[in-house]
Amino acid sequence: MKNHFLSLADLTKDEILELLDLSIELKEKQKKGQAEPILKGQTLAMIFQKPSTRTRISFEVGMFQLGGHALYLAPSDIGVGTREAVKDIARVLSRYNDGIMARLFGHEDIIEMAKYSSVPVINGLTDLLHPCQVMADVLTILEHRKNLDDLKVTYIGDGNNLTNSWLNFASRFPMKLAMAIPEGHDPDQEILKNAKDAGISEIELFRDPQKAVKDTDVIYADVWASMHQKDETEIRKKIFKDYQVNDELMKHARPDTYIMHCLPAYRGMEITDSVIESPNSIVFDEAENRLHAQKAIMVKLMGK
Ligand code: CP
Ligand code: NVA
Q: Which of 7, 96, 193, 227 is deepest in the core (most CB within 10 A)?
């Protein structure tokens, strides 16, 4: 595996499988009270340009469970690119810490951070990608479904950092990835092309959510306006109104289809309260698995 975790497209299929195996092992040991302090004495600097619940807490708790310590650096603390240049932050933080996790706006900034950092850099979300989330998602699907054979995941909504990360996953791991996305909000064109060119998955873009969910194992939702688009919330409510995951849409899917959402969810917008609270919903297992999946990523990158 590379020294950094920036994109699932940087991993091979075997490396993804190794991370999943390690996530399961670390999770089992933690639940049995047999966790080992694999990262004893190590520190992780966590830089946030955007808000977070799951990412901040799962990395912080994960580091503590591994015997290390995480430092939370809020948007106002560091001033990425405003108070200080990314390349200077990367080099300074590398002198104090064993790893850096960053949630940034520009994906180019996390690439620059990794270039100048002498310790591993983990992508905790950029406008373009959210690879830690998809590792946790796949772990959750594996636990519930018992295998990943002939998996079909259907993403409904905005072609955003989650969609792009699912496409990267599909470029490495054989699956069916259906996306129902309104025109003008497609995922990143280069990532979509690369995923199709990789030729190992069936990738289909629909405009009609009802067609996309046919015979799917998972329906996946995310917010219509991501954190860097909050000023577009009102206009996006109109654009995406036919892309809500609701009881009507569920009638077009199999009765055993899992419901996933990376959270935070806006109930009544991209997903209804009844769907997210339904027995098919595995959103809280998914949220928990951020912890276990990221512990595996940290152990792989930072373990001596
Ligand atoms: N899913 C996710 O990344 O949640 P946070 O934004 O709360 O970290
Ligand atoms: N697409 C969302 C994901 C939040 C976890 C965002 O970028 O805000």
A: 7
pLDDT digits (tens, 9 = 90+) for 189-223: 999 999 999 999 999 999 999 999 999 999 999 99
CB 86 within 8 A of CB 113: yes
Q: Which of 105, 224, 226, 261 to mutate to test the pocket of ligand 2 (most atoms within 8 A of CB)?
A: 226
pLDDT at 115: 98
Cα-atom radius of gyration of the chain, to the nearest Å?
19
The residues, any chain, with a CB within 8 Å of residue 236's CB and separated by 6 or more, are 158, 224, 225, 229
262 belongs to the catalytic site: yes
CATH architecture of 133-286: 3-Layer(aba) Sandwich (3.40)
Residue 72 gets the label, from left (phi > 0), alpha (psi -120 to 50) or beta, of beta
The total number of residues written for the chain in this structure = 304
Q: What is the mean pLDDT of residues 224-228?
A: 98
Question: Predicted confidence band at 1 (pLDDT cuts at 50, 70, 90)?
Answer: confident
Domain range list for the chain: 8-130+290-302, 133-286
Query: What CATH number is given for 8-130+290-302 in this structure?
Result: 3.40.50.1370
Expressed in angstroms and rounded, the spacing between residue 223 Cα and the centre of ligand 2 is 7
